[in-house]
Amino acid sequence: MRRLVYALPLLVLAVVGVFFFVGFDRDPKLIPSPMIDKPSPAFAVPGLRGGDGTVGNARFGGTVTLVNFFASWCVPCRIEHPLLMELARAGTVRIVGIDYKDKPEDALGWLRQLGDPYTVIGADRDGRAAIDWGVYGVPESYLVDRQGRIRFKQVGPITEDVWRTTMLPMIKELSQ
Amino acid sequence: MFTEIGHYALILALAVAAAQAVVPLVGAHRGDRTLMAVGRSAAFAQFLLVCVAFGALLHAYVTSDFSVANVAQNSHTDKPMLYKVSGLWGNHEGSLLLWIAILSGFGAAVAGFGNNLPAALRARTLAVQGMIAVGFTLFILLTSNPFERLDPVPLNGNGLNPLLQDPGLAFHPPFLYLGYVGFSIAFSFAVAALIEGRVDAAWARWVRPWTLAAWVFLTVGIGLGSWWAYYELGWGGWWYWDPVENASFMPWLAGTALLHSAIIVEKRDTLKTWTILLAIIAFSLSLLGTFLVRSGIISSVHSFASDPTRGLFILALLLVTVGGSLVLYALRAPVLKSGGLFSAVSREGSLVLNNVLLATATGTVLLGTLYPLIADALNLGKLSVGAPFFNAVFVPLAVPLAAAMALGPLLAWKRGNLMRALRALRPAVAAGLLVAVGTLVWGGSASPWWAALGTGLAAYLFVGTLTETAERVRLFDVPPAASLHRLVHLPRSAYGLLLSHLGLALVIAGITGSSAWKVESVQTMRVGETVVVAGFAYRLDGVEEARGPNYVSARATFTVTKDGRPYAVMQPEKRLYMQPQRPTTEAAIVTTWLGDLYAVIGDANGPDGFVTRLYFNPLVPWLWAGGIVMVLGGLVSLSDRRHRVGAPARAHAALAVNSVARGA
Fold first, then answer.
1. Between residues B70 and B304, which one has the greater pLDDT?
2. Which of A17, B95, B348, B530 is the most exposed place for a label (fewest CB within 10 A)?
3. Contact at 8 Å (CB) between B458 and B511?
4. Chain B residues whose beta carbon lies within 8 Å of the beta carbon of residue A28
């Protein structure tokens, strides 16, 4: 019995090791979303800002939309933010923000501080909508086409590279 | 030419490390002194060869030799010299070379300073050190060679991420690595002890200074990283619970636990298997940190571009190193004899409590960091864990830890008197309550309830730690002169305890203040306009264009006045770096006793209007001061003569010589 206690750390390592190994096949940046080409999952969350109203699928469609999950406590979001601001300024695409597991006052302060690129923002306080959408972590962004189907998923910050080579051409194509 | 020599030296270093891993081990097994001595020479040779390799790459960086792929990808002729040098470790391949250089440096240090170690223990320790070196040198040579050439040679390099072009961050990785890799010594000692099947007080005395040195380096490294985030990311935050930050925080927690449990092994010859396990864990978590950053298995801002072969290799390395040592542990730990017994209320008891809490904290951070990965693998849904989780779990652990920190040193070894210790703590409790109530009364209505808890705890710990020193020098029991005499003659390790615990009290105050009472104001300001933040009036005097060596910047000038009197002039900048093109914010910070004035200039908004962000960050300077005091405590303790292994032995020898001389 005593010997078993001393083997316990080894057991823990074995379990963690298995998870790491499985993790390799599930690289958060490479995993193809099962949501691609499917209609965006049904959800409805309260708006974050005064005039936002309820935010849900009904708000998509008609025009190509970039759905961006973010949070004020998320560091990579901070890195991504200037790009979103630029997109908002250029008006290339409608940007819907989903504020993930965040206090509204924190999120509002964050937007006041860094600028607000979003057309509407939903507050997903318990992370329910994010689960429905298959969000791995924030930031994560989805391109939704005019018919309300998800066409592209970006895990992690949208980089200039991804934007230039993949997302911008796709938006141009979808908007035609 | 130099580059090829460097590459060749690294291959030779691999061969030497392989010899170092095997020969001394055989020697120690057979009791052959000649074979054991190979470990020492091999450690020196390996260090020398790795230095040649490191020097070669450094030469390529300093001379901007873009025929070397690594240099071309990460450097640029326009960069100031400091960042050309730090560019070496600002990337995957170069930082691994730094890792190995530090590893072999520590190995050479054990070989050089370990003359009074038992020959077999030293041989085995160096052999384990050699094994780690083999693993990492193979990793670098097979998957991440920094000496690869480019053909054709590009005219100029890609440059270094401007965010990283900063003095704080230039020195952050080397210190972090000195800390990470420093734990390899404790690890090697632990594995060597498991092979020998013997752990005694002398073993703990040898391990402690190495652990302490690693802990000091790691503390400096984490502090520098946090300080950098504070002034460079431009919003006054200093800790994000990012996976990579956690990766450096976990070995720090485990190392802190190890420092304390090694005291028990040294003084009381007990808790050995736990201490060995901690030594293994501290280094394993350092490796895990390296793995998490390199593999890209968890997304983080810090991740370097990842490549699956590298991730797989380092996972194998991690599993072999940690798995191997844990197998050895499972086999040999039951054999280790445990020493003295102690009651729950005793110095040992409080150190055990410290260890339990620190281990729980380590486990919590580990769980929070790996949870998204585990949840994903189990198809539990995709989850992410952020600051809310860590804050919710960490605070309840920190409170009893701080409470026990002041109490523990007041208890005697073996069996302590709780009532006596609590009586001695009365001033500390009174100070804590006073400050907590003061915080509630004057903290303002916006102040959250936990602010009083934090400040009260900090005051309690501060006074409680002073109480311990006062008890030691028997302040008020004996005449002041006698107390002073005792104070001067306290062992350095007692000063170490005093300083490091006082430092933590300051850190707690800093964390509390900066999270509870941060004042921020974001607005568009015209030139000449004034905004008041936390009693300081900021007037925007103007924004002009400035030029640096490899950037252009918009530099704002604020004149800050307090109560109508001039207080400071602040010049925050917004820089645009040329190569690669990227904007960065350079906050202007003025430090006062009670907090930092922090100003950031943003984009132009309308005709002569600028977005400005003005903050008052209360008690943040205390956080940095606390970190520095903790590091000082570690350094002072490190200079204790009892840690200079063999110092007492040498003193005895001198005494013997003296008496012989007198006899003659």
1. B70
2. B530
3. no
4. 297-299, 372, 376
Counting one residue from A and one from B, how many pairs have CB atoms under 8 Å apart? 109
Q: How much is the average pLDDT of B362-371?
A: 85
The answer to whether the CB atoms of B240 and A75 lie below 8 A apart is: yes
The helix (run of H) or strand (run of E) holding residue B373 is helix B347-377
Put the strands of the sheet holding A120-124 in their side by side order: A120-124, A94-100, A65-70, A140-144, A150-155
Strand B565-570 and strand B551-562: the pairing is: antiparallel
> Do B425 and B408 meet the contact criterion of CB atoms below 8 Å apart?
no
A2 and chain B: CB distance < 8 Å anywhere? yes
Alpha carbon B633 to its chain centroid, in Å, reads 14
Q: Looking at B121, B143, B161, which one is the last position of a domain?
A: B161
Beta carbons of B72 and B66 less than 8 angstroms apart: yes
The pLDDT of residue B394 is: 82
- Find, in chain A, the residue whose alpha carbon is nearest to that of B335: A3
The 10s digit of each residue's pLDDT in B473-510 is: 877 778 888 888 888 888 888 899 999 999 999 999 99
DSSP 8-state class, residue B478: B
Q: In 3-state terms, what secondary structure has residue A157?
A: coil
Nearest CA in chain A to B327: A10
Locate A41 and state its tokens: 């999952």
CB B461 within 8 A of CB B402: yes
Domain end (from B124, B146, B161): B161
Residue at B139 is within a domain: yes
Closest approach of chain B CAs to the CA of A176, in angstroms? 32
pTM of the model: 0.80
The total number of residues written for chain B in this structure: 664
* Residues near A147 by beta carbon (within 8 Å), at least 6 away in sequence: A39, A61
Whether the per-residue pLDDT at B238 is higher than 70: the answer is yes
Residue B47: band (very low, low, confident or very high) from pLDDT cuts 50, 70, 90: very high
What's the pLDDT at A37? 78
Q: Report the pLDDT value the prediction gives residue B384, as an integer from 0 to 100.
A: 60
Arithmetic mean of pLDDT, A104-116: 87
For residue B480, cis peptide bond before it (omega within 30 degrees of 0):
no
Is residue B655 pLDDT above 50, yes or no?
Answer: no
Q: Is residue B277 part of a domain?
A: no
On whether both B90 and B7 belong to a single domain, the answer is yes
